[in-house]
Amino acid sequence: MSYPNYVRKLMEEVLKLKERRKAVILAHNYQLPEVQDVADFVGDSLELARKALTVDADVIVFAGVSFMAEMVAALNPDKVVLHPDPRARCLLADMLTPEHVRRVREESPNTPLILYVNSPTELKALADYVVTSSSAAKLVSKLGVDEVILAPDKNLADYVAQVTGVKVKALPKYGHCPIHENLISRYYVEKALSKYPGAKVIIHPEAPRDARELAVRVGSTSQMLKAIPEVGGGTILLGTEEGLTYRARKLYPNLDIKPLNPIAVCTDMKKIHLLNIKESLEKLRPRVELSRDVLKRVKEVIEESLRVIGK
Ligand code: SF4
Fold it and tell me: How close is the Cα of 5 to the center of ligand 1, in Å?
């Protein structure tokens, strides 16, 4: 992408600082194009978690929302993990409360409690497993049980139940990502298809079932990217946060890829930008700081989940 001069200058400054601090930048697929372009690695939550385990650097700058930065800190207890704006939070994650977890543990003590990665870090420490949208169905299938509890996304819970045949209880019943629930809804899928007749829709499992029904593929952001060259030619509409389209167009410059809904923007994801990345590298702040006990327990839950999911 060709950027205005002031953006190019900022990008150069960030890259120099990154080298001086021996830092790496990990960026989520929903980040701004210029942030993706200064990052060492761009991916979905699972890819970033795996990358964080092998990264060789003193400092990690995490460009994404807070629970993701905290997960990276949990996996890298001896590294400095910077989150340029801790106010970048996930509205879905914040729908799950300690009271929900306490109550469900009391009511169903023997049912596996699976937390979607988009959940508060302290509550992950109380879960049996942690999954991402790319690993949820795989983990549930491998557990070999009749019933699980999945928190906090009701649409992901519904999708996992659909593909695995396992009973999946959503906790809380109303948990959802407002961007996917409201802006990747059936209304917007139909609207996009009337504008681009015959287009192929690839959609994220956080979208509601009636929207997913119109898609040719459902998957996490990395699975959506992988599906693009597999669904045949013509226009491809990506049913998720609009930031993924930049990455997709970079990977497949000759394909006609469009966001299903260009106003599906996660404003929290966009709170991370070049200016606060630069400032965090200069000051080595704000750092992710959570209790070592919580981070240790979260690391154990994530590692056990990755072990069950397999490579
Ligand atoms: Fe959370 Fe939705 Fe934003 Fe993803 S897009 S970070 S689930 S609010």
Answer: 31
